[in-house]
Amino acid sequence: MKDKDLMGMEMVSCREFGEQYTQGILLTDYPVTITYQNVSMADADKNWHTPSVVLYSSDDGKVDGQRGMVLANHYKEYCITRSDAYGIKGLAEAYQYESQHLSEWNTWEEWIAKNKEGTICNVMAVRYEKYVMIRLENAGVVVSATVTLPEDAGKNVYFALTGERCTLSDFVPMWDAEPIGEGAITPVSVKKPVMPQTQGDFPNLDCPGWWTNHSDGIEIKEQPITLNFNSVSYQQAKEGWHTPFVVLFSALDKSVNGVAYTEYSVTRSDAYGWKENADDFSFEAEFSDDWTSWEDWLAANKKGVKCSVTAVREGDTITLKQENCGVIVTTYMVVPSSTDLPVCFALSGELCTISNIRKVN
Question: What pLDDT is attached to residue 1?
Answer without folding.
Answer: 34
